[in-house]
């Protein structure tokens, strides 16, 4: 009940002495999305990802559970900034 609805944003800054807004590089990692269908939750997550203004979005497994859910995932991806690089690895559900 909790995990499918849990949305957590954590921030980690590396090399604080040399990092500035000018030379920063933002990575967003999305794991265990388990997107069964496109819904308000997916819309909210896409909006939050775009607000973070990432250079790269990494999907680290379990984005969907079944091939029939690809359309919803495709719709989710279409909401993310088109200029942002996106990479994915498969989880144990894909």
Number of strands: 3
The whole-angstrom Rg is 14 Å
Helix content: 10-25%
Shape type? elongated
- Mean of all residue-level pLDDT scores: 87
Largest sheet: 3 strands, parallel
Quick structural summary:
The protein has helices at residues 40-51, 70-79; strands at residues 27-30, 56-60, 85-89.
Describe the structure.
- With 94 residues, this protein is α/β, with parallel strands linked by helices.
- A three-stranded parallel β-sheet has the order 1-2-3, with no helix packed on it.
- The chain is built from two helices and three strands.
Could you give the topology of this structure?
Layout: E1 27-30, H1 40-51, E2 56-60, H2 70-79, E3 85-89
Parallel strand pairs: 1-2, 2-3
Which structural traits does this protein have?
23% helix, 3-stranded parallel beta sheet, 2 helices, elongated, 94 residues
């Amino acid at each position: 009940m909790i995990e499918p609805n849990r949305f957590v944003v954590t921030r980690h800054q590396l090399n604080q002495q040399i990092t500035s807004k000018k030379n920063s590089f933002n990575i967003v990692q999305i794991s265990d999305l388990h997107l069964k269908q496109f819904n308000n939750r997916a819309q909210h997550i896409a909006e939050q990802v775009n607000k973070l203004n990432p250079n790269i979005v990494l999907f680290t497994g379990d984005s969907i559970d079944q091939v029939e859910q690809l359309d919803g995932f495709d719709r989710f991806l279409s909401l993310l900034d088109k200029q942002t690089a996106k990479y994915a690895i498969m989880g144990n559900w894909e």
